[in-house]
Amino acid sequence: MSEPEASSETVTPPESTKTGPGRLLVAVYGLFALSACARAGTQIATEFSRAPVAYVLSAIAGVVYIVATVTLVNGSRTARRIAALSCSVELAGVLAVGTWSVLDKASFPDATVWSTYGVGYGFVPLVLPVFGLLWLRRWSKRDRTSPAIVPAAPVAGEVVGDGEDGSRAGTPSVDSRRTSGL
Amino acid sequence: MNGAVPTTIIVVGLALAAYALLTTARNRRVGLGLLVVIGVLEILLLVLVGLIVARLAGGGRPTGMVMLVGYLIAMPLVPVIAGFWGAMERSRWGPAVYAVAGLAAAILMVRLHEIWAVIHV
Fold first, then answer.
1. pLDDT band at B46 (very low <50, low <70, confident <90, very high)
2. Interface of A with B in 20-79 (CB under 8 A)
3. ipTM surpassing 0.95, yes or no?
4. Which among A6, A27, A34 is the nearest to B100, CB-wise?
5. E strands, B1-121, where?
């Protein structure tokens, strides 16, 4: 087969939320954003009165999927926070709406993306936010560890003398005290 | 004749998914082989859009007309967007995107049949 060998980039962790496994996540999120919004859009436009609850929930799901897609592509620290929030909302949504649709079938004459925990979509809506949160956790971990790594070997006088960032100058001493205390 | 194109799309879509997943498993990135298969899928989808538009022009009307038009617009976009998105990735996860596109094309055919049963699968 003609496929070239994957580059060595696969060995080192990917440098953004949209590369590596994130590439697949963004693709699936994008697909769900498209399908959920298209479904909700046409249903609300053509037959809203038939199942208003289901259609509004479909629209909300679509918006959540769009937010997750966009923030995963963006990948900045703020975007990752919003992405994590939308994944959480999504997980809560699929569990709540899934349970609601099983208990109260009358409110759902027509299915939503999240009905019966996403059975109409191969339970992907249930699995997707879990993978999303696991993927985003990598970066929140890195955020927590990196400030301790960056000023690993501070020259005390130089750092304090640098008036550019006073708060950062204080961190190394706190860190070194903490490590020496161990 | 009408059912041949959607059926072929399902077969090609599933074949693309299998081929792409194999490529991911072998830790390869997107190469010429996958580009050719996703290109074939795109051509087949465009043929199907043409066939459906011809049927609509001939006076046929499905109950879910708005939905059908949405499908006509979205269907040909799937391999194009997935094609670029996956080719840009220089790791094994690029082919995984192609697998999603192949599966999505196959599922779209089943849903399309539900919208307008005239399009036989």
1. very high
2. 20-24, 26-28, 30-31, 34, 38, 41-42, 45-46
3. no
4. A27
5. none
